[in-house]
Design a protein that fits this description.
This protein has about 200 residues and is mainly α. The chain has ten helices and no strands.
């Protein structure tokens, strides 16, 4: 059995994400991926059982990597405003540096892969963020609310700004590039909305 070539594995992961973003899941194939990577289809099957296994493994590995970046230097004991600011900083930095990864997960979010990829990588993330929210509620920094409400108010504005930035335009086609002034003034509005 041939040994795993990590450079090839990284190339396959990057090209697969790029192809899913550009062609959609329906236009993605193992044959096209092998050709784009300059390798044989047989080489892909050394690393992955089939197309589903390939997409699922890549998504799980990237989700785990993203969770590590999002939780970098994050302590659930932080005061709410400071912790939320760190979350915004980590998420914005990661998504601006890796726009293809963000778009790849957007493609998966509306597919059957979403359920195959989220649960395996979310346990630690859920624990840390759950503790952060519980601490903030216990200290009276935020009111108790359903996690879906919190998530919608806390992060949807950030993801909308990042989507506009990646597309290079805002609603109506006006050119848009996210800068610190827009990022942190939006954050201040979110913080105001969430705190009593």
């Amino acid at each position: 059995m041939r040994t795993r070539n990590e450079e090839k594995v990284e190339l396959v992961k990057q090209k697969a994400m790029e192809m899913v973003v550009s062609d959609g899941l329906e236009g993605f194939s193992v044959n096209k991926l092998a050709k784009a990577c300059g390798i044989s289809v047989a080489t892909l099957y050394i690393y992955y059982k089939d197309k589903d296994d390939l997409i699922t493994q890549i998504a799980n590995e990237e989700a785990e990597r993203m969770n590590e970046i999002v939780l970098k230097d994050f302590d659930p004991e932080l005061p709410f405003a400071e912790g939320l600011r760190m979350q915004w900083k980590n998420r914005a930095k990661h998504m601006m540096e890796h726009p293809v990864n963000m778009q790849f997960f957007e493609q998966l979010r509306t597919s059957t892969y979403h359920h195959k990829t989220t649960s395996a990588t979310m346990s630690r993330f859920k624990d840390v963020m759950g503790k952060f929210m519980s601490n903030a509620v216990a200290r009276g920094e935020i009111n108790k609310m359903p996690v879906e409400v919190y998530w919608s108010v806390a992060f949807s504005p950030l993801y909308a700004l990042l989507r506009f930035h990646n597309e290079g335009k805002s609603m109506g086609g006006k050119p848009f590039s996210l800068d610190n002034k827009v990022l942190w003034s939006t954050f201040d509005l979110v913080l105001k909305a969430l705190t009593p």
